[in-house]
Amino acid sequence: MVKVAVVEGDGIGREVVPVARDILAAVRPDIEFFDVEVGYGRWERTGSACDEETIAALRSADAILFGAITTPPDPGYRSVLMQIRRALDLYANVRPIRGEGVDVVIVRENTEGLYSGIEWTEPDRACTVRVVSRRGSERIARYACTLAKSRRHLTVGNKANVLKSDCLFVEACTAEAARAGVPCTFCYIDALCLDLLMHPDRYDVIVTTNIFGDILSDAAAYLVGGLGLLPSANIGEGHALFEPVHGSAPDIADKNVANPIAAIRSGAMLLSHLGDPASAAAVEEAVDRVLRAGIRTPDLGGAAGTREFGAAVLREVGRGKA
């Protein structure tokens, strides 16, 4: 029995994740789902957003379907996602950007950089340490090279003209690409952000450091219609978590207007990770058929609600199995 932990989280996560879960259950009735509560809502109620018992529950799963978490500007609140990524060593953040004329995968180092968690505040300044280690750089480069070997080429996004830490990152990526026999080019991240938007056909697999990958992949959502369409995976040696790229969007929560496509496609990535590409393809094709039928949520110019869009995809999945 495959066990999948379901974390709805906060805001629109509580709306889009149940849609994705229902679709996964339809294509894979053998999956055993179990709920795990983390996030700001839990923190407000109990004083703890995520604890060791929660981490243990997540560790027990074969995969995790994750919603969205609100992170308030409160010094007493620790980022839940950063805790989980470190605890499960989910070092590779994988964000496919696919649409008409666009097929790019952004691979982001997920545990270091400016999200290292090494921070402190002084009377006249606040400090965050940017950590780029050789081990972290080499393993994210190896992961990106594995993807690039089955595709076309690798681009290394960096700021090595300014940051010494990026010199190490570029060096590690160069060596790993050479070992893997993967064609590799380099681009400064500011120029890459613009050129990717102008000429997405030039790019295939992009690997970069933590915050650069976060910003670049969010900007790249413009190419395919917005953050509501982008899935992602957080991959480690023994664990994997799948989540939509968008945030908790509290301003539209509980209004049945959130786009569930990113959550649904994150579910498809989860199925691929579990070794079931056929079911993953069935989910992707069902989403495409619904969009071609003109059923869209408000962010895409339509009038369908979150639940109604999910129901339409569920019907298409059923037709595909018939």
Automatic annotation (TrEMBL):
It comes from the Archaea. This is 3-isopropylmalate dehydrogenase. The keyword rRNA-binding does not apply. It comes from Methanoculleus marisnigri (strain ATCC 35101 / DSM 1498 / JR1). Gene3D superfamilies: Isopropylmalate Dehydrogenase. Residues 3-313 form the Isopropylmalate dehydrogenase-like domain. SMART domains: Iso_dh. Its EC number is 1.1.1.85. GO terms for molecular function: 3-isopropylmalate dehydrogenase activity; isocitrate dehydrogenase (NAD+) activity; magnesium ion binding; NAD binding.
